[in-house]
Design goal:
The complex is a heterodimer of chains A (about 325) and B (about 700). Chain A has about 325 residues and is mostly helical. Chain A is built from 14 helices and no strands. In chain A, about 40% of the residues are buried. The chains are: A mainly alpha (about 325), B alpha/beta (about 700). The interface between A and B is large, with 95 and 89 residues.
């Protein structure tokens, strides 16, 4: 009896350990990926020909920064120190974008400003990608997604301006507050940014293609065939039974697509925020690179890499929570 | 002179010819795009292929590095790299290539890894193809070319869009005075040219990017994507009239055809009454499963079905029981599991909360039956369609399933069962009626047309011969290896295996699914970790698979590169044979030997299952193998065809060759071999000659197998 209890306790402990391991693995993987990204950024900065500090006009500031950044120390030491600082959030202060300002604060505020745009573009891509069923809709989504974000943004802004101008000339409406896009802030500009980003970054095409591939795999799955056969000749029942199955099985492709489109969305964010003069992480990165503000540029890149890694971890955890084959391996 | 002839597209704000600059602007795009593709493919493809082909820790390390680089979004990475390597098309191309390399690498990794998991790499290496050639030529170039095309288009399209955008915005892209579509557009917009000069630089990148994206779309269109209509659509054509739901009889007058009108399956008439088991039999390829699918209304999209079908409430049990269960829900969530349904299906109530992937093979069959007879949220079926549900089951599980089906039909309001099988041994005492596909219905009560008994091989005198293959005290660990290590991790899968195969012998390994037959075959060829004494053609194969040993894989397509025509595949084997001094064996002769001359130009993927098996045999013959390790070569075949398959295998190996066959079906292989080894619970529990089976089979498991047959 005692042995049986001990066996049961040991089996339960093993199950708990297995379950914990299945949750810890993606978290550890995401953390490792972020640390690797931070290390890569520091390697790039350290291997830069010359020092960006030398371009600063103020000699006193140059000397101070050279001391702060340890520019006199060996490269490997600078890389390691920079990596540790990058991981701990000690990103220093801005050189030229906003001299003296705390980089972590600047980057944090910029990321928060960009978050609604990213979320809106992601939602647009996922919703349209989900709706784009069938060959023609899929081709249309892919073709729209092939348009580059630059041209899409210019087209949307110039088209809106032209339409507004035409209406004003005809006396249909007075000059609206959002006229003279893209520089005029407002909800219309945000809508243009979201539409251009969601479509022009390629996110829409990616989501639509992933759903199409998932549907192709599902269409021949034995349990879908069984459900279709079971639903017999009642069309209403066919729809509800099979549709229920399909939606449940589209969650994993949705999660994977969410992860896959984040990188193109962030890439497009740099361009679209710059084009529309909308403050955010992309705009900040552009300005930092333009004036060689290394702390701010590396800070933004490290923060974006952290967001990518966090989304990757969240997606993996959600997949494990949803799919019992990952949650309870046989 | 007409000024338009000098500047057909006009001039820009500083008087430069727009047409010439448009052409000049293609240069940085092509230069940078070319560099980006070269960099991304050099690093990404090589690392992705190595990670996919090796797997293990090296693969994990490469994937971890790729994930770290991929964590940085591409355009920010390009901007930061731009700080280091400067501006211009070439540096941008270099930076974009580095940024895209992880994506290319991961795409190649996923394809190569999938092929490795299907044992394709192992099959090529076991066949004698050098590993580097198998990976580079067969896995990457032949089987991942669509991925390469798609990634090339993706990198190029991304570079066009990125370069135009950065050049438009200035500072990080191609700067004036060098021409770029982006900076031309920026100048036109700034100078207020509007629709004139600005429109052409806009059109140029759009055309270029849409063109590249069209290539990408074309490359991305796999056959599956092309063939799939919306899943909500019924794929059976509308002339299949939906019948009366209350009906309990079915009547089918049906033909399934391809799009060009070729008839694939035909059945004149079929009736099934409540409580009746009707067996649909016919040779492979007769269209038994297609007819079943036509009745169920799930004919593949490329086919059409015609005829009159009165369709009652249906249930479907597929050949792969686990695949017919929803993997995301427990059995309880899928079935209305009352006591009666549980009793009829034989599914244990204690396992109702298990997910399908956690069920054993037998449990999965019972669960599929439970879901079929008592689906949640749907009425019980009046007709149960069972598509070869006993294929792959050992005799005990097969007997158990047929008994459950018989009991089901005899229950109150029991459904009719339409049962597709190739195994005629099941039919006596189980099927009420037998309907051969392609001919008229057998009259009720007519005897089943059983196949003739195969002829047993003649006994051999082995007293003075040295075995071709001998193993003594062999322990086998699961998992594949090509390293010469002799032990694996943890407990061995098989312990203390003693066996031998002499020249001219056909020896069978018999055991349940999962008993380690396949692992033992691989270990005998040095492809699984093992220790103990092992001699194959006079040498130990571990570390270096024997040059005169070939494997016949369970899925015959595994060893055939699906992208190559048959004659080219066989030419590879012919070359390998020449390297092994097998002089004089030609592709034409091999094709004649396996009766595939008419299919010489067909792709391996276009061959039927039987043709693929014969093609594999032709490969084996060309390499001049003396020992063949065959994994379930008789699975899915009736007794007569199984005998044919082994006779052909003997003809391929020759009278002096040795054959070791793994099978789960003792009664099927018993008349076909010289000796049988029975594997059970990690050990060889019995070894006997077929003539001594009744006396020599002592283990209860063996006796059970013999009784079940």
């Amino acid at each position: 009896m005692g042995e049986r209890v001990a066996d049961a306790v040991s089996t339960a402990a093993e199950r708990t350990a297995t379950r914990r391991a299945s949750w810890l693995t993606p978290v550890a993987g995401g953390a490792l990926a972020w640390v690797g990204a931070v290390l890569l950024v520091q390697v790039l900065v350290a291997l830069a020909p010359g020092d960006a500090v030398d371009t600063l006009p103020d000699p006193a500031l140059r000397a101070q920064l050279a001391l702060d950044w340890g520019l006199g120390r060996p490269v490997w030491e600078r890389i390691l120190t920079g990596t540790v600082h990058g991981i701990t959030g000690a990103w220093g202060s801005s050189w030229t974008v906003q001299p003296g300002a705390d980089v972590a604060g600047m980057v944090g505020a910029a990321v928060v400003k960009s978050a609604p745009v990213l979320l809106g573009a992601w939602t647009l891509a996922v919703v349209v990608g989900l709706v784009a069923r069938g060959r023609t809709a899929l081709q249309a989504a892919t073709a729209a997604s092939a348009l580059p974000v630059l041209l899409l943004t210019l087209g949307l802004t110039q088209g809106t301006n032209a339409a507004v101008w035409y209406g004003m000339q005809r006396g249909w409406w007075p000059r609206p507050s959002f006229f003279a896009l893209p520089t005029e802030p407002g909800w219309v500009r945000d809508a243009v940014v979201i539409a251009a980003l969601g479509i022009g970054s390629g996110a829409l095409g990616e989501v639509a293609a992933r759903f199409a591939a998932a549907d192709a795999a599902l269409s021949e799955a034995g349990f879908v065939l069984a459900a279709r056969a079971r639903s017999g000749s009642d069309p209403a029942h066919t729809s509800s039974a099979v549709r229920q199955l399909l939606w449940r099985h589209r969650v994993v492709p949705l999660l994977e697509a969410s992860h896959a489109v984040f990188s193109p969305l962030v890439g497009g964010l740099v361009i679209v925020e710059r084009l529309c003069a909308r403050p955010g992480a992309g705009d900040l990165l552009w300005r930092a690179v333009a004036v060689r503000d290394v702390p701010v540029a590396t800070g933004v890149v490290v923060a974006l890499a952290g967001c990518t890694a966090a989304i990757s971890v969240a997606v993996e955890l959600a997949r494990r929570a949803w799919d019992p084959r990952l949650r309870h391996p046989a | 002179m007409n000024p338009l002839s000098l500047h057909p597209l006009g001039t820009d704000a500083v008087g430069r010819d727009v047409a010439l600059r448009l052409i000049a602007a293609a240069k940085p795009l092509l230069l940078g795009g070319g560099i980006a593709i070269a960099v991304a493919f050099t690093t990404g493809v090589s690392l992705g292929a190595v990670a996919g082909a090796r797997g293990g820790r090296i693969g994990q390390a490469i994937r971890a590095a790729a994930t770290s680089v991929a964590a940085i979004p591409a355009i920010p990475l390009v901007l930061v790299l731009g700080l280091e390597i400067g501006q211009g098309a070439a540096p941008l191309g270099l930076a974009w290539g580095l940024a895209c390399a992880p994506g290319v690498g991961m795409a190649i990794f996923h394809r190569v890894d999938a092929l490795r998991r299907e044992d394709r790499l192992l099959a090529l290496v076991a066949h004698g193809v050098p590993t580097w050639r198998a990976v580079a030529v067969h896995l990457v170039w032949n089987n991942a070319r669509d991925v390469l095309r798609m990634q090339a288009a993706r990198v190029l399209a991304g570079f066009l869009a990125m370069e135009s955008a950065l050049s438009y915005l200035g500072s990080a892209g191609v700067a004036e005075p060098e021409a770029s579509w982006g900076n031309m557009l920026a100048m036109a917009m700034r100078s207020g040219d509007g629709a004139g000069a600005a429109s052409l630089p806009v059109i140029a990148p759009v055309v270029a990017i849409v063109g590249v994206s069209a290539l990408l779309w074309r490359a991305a269109q796999g056959p599956a994507v092309r063939a799939v209509p919306g899943l909500h659509e019924r794929r059976a054509p509308q002339e299949l009239h939906d019948g009366d739901l209350a009906a309990t009889n079915i009547e089918v007058r049906n033909a399934v055809r391809t799009a060009d009108g070729r008839r694939l399956a035909h059945l004149d008439a079929l009736h099934a009454h409540p409580g009746e088991v009707v067996a649909l039999i016919g040779p492979s390829g007769a269209g038994k499963s297609l007819i079943l699918r036509a009745i169920a209304g799930i004919v593949p999209a490329a086919l059409t079905a015609s005829g009159r079908i009165t369709r009652p409430r249906l249930a479907w049990v597929a050949q792969d029981a686990r695949a017919s269960l929803d993997p995301l829900r427990t059995v309880r969530a899928q079935a209305d599991a009352g006591p009666e349904a549980l009793k009829l299906s034989g599914f244990p109530a204690a396992r109702l909360d298990a997910f399908p992937h956690a069920l054993s093979g037998g449990e999965a069959q019972r669960a599929a039956l439970l879901v079929a007879v008592a689906p949640r949220g749907a009425p019980p079926p009046a007709l149960l369609l069972a598509d070869e549900p006993t294929t792959g089951l050992d005799p005990r599980a097969r007997r158990s399933l047929t008994r459950a089906l018989r009991a089901l039909t005899r229950s109150e309001a029991g459904p009719a069962v339409l049962f597709v099988t190739h195994d005629q041994r099941l039919l006596p005492g189980f099927a009420d009626r037998i309907v051969p596909v392609g001919s008229s219905e057998t009259p009720p009560g007519a005897p089943a047309p059983l196949a003739p008994s195969p002829r047993a091989p003649s006994p051999l005198d082995l007293t003075s011969t040295t075995p071709l293959l001998a193993a003594s005290g062999l322990c086998v660990w699961p998992g594949l290896t090509r390293s010469p290590r002799r032990t694996g991790r943890g407990a061995p899968l098989l312990r203390g295996i003693d066996l031998h195969v002499h020249a001219g012998e056909t020896v069978c390994l018999v055991g349940e699914s999962g008993s380690g037959k396949t692992s033992l075959l691989r270990a005998l060829n040095g492809l699984c970790a093992s220790n103990g004494t092992l001699t194959l053609l006079g040498a130990d194969p571990r570390g270096e698979p024997s040059r005169r040993t070939q494997m016949l894989w369970q899925d015959p397509g595994t060893s055939l590169d699906p992208t190559l025509p048959l004659h080219r595949l066989l030419a590879i084997s012919e070359r390998l044979g020449r390297e092994r001094d097998t002089v004089g064996r030609t592709v034409d002769e091999a094709l004649r030997k396996v009766d595939l001359v008419h299919r010489a130009k067909a792709l391996a993927s276009e061959l039927s299952g039987g043709e693929q098996r014969r093609a594999s045999l032709a490969q084996i013959w060309l390499t001049g193998a003396r020992v063949v390790l065959a994994d379930e070569p008789t699975a899915g075949l009736d007794a007569a065809r199984a005998a044919e398959a082994l006779t052909l295998l003997r003809a391929i190996v020759g009278a002096e060759g040795g054959i070791l066959v793994a099978s789960h079906d003792l009664t099927q292989v018993l008349p076909l071999c010289h000796r049988v080894y029975v594997l059970h619970e990690g050990a060889c529990v019995d070894a006997f000659a077929p003539s001594d089976a009744a006396d020599a089979a002592r283990h209860p498991f063996t006796r059970d197998l013999l009784d079940a047959g």
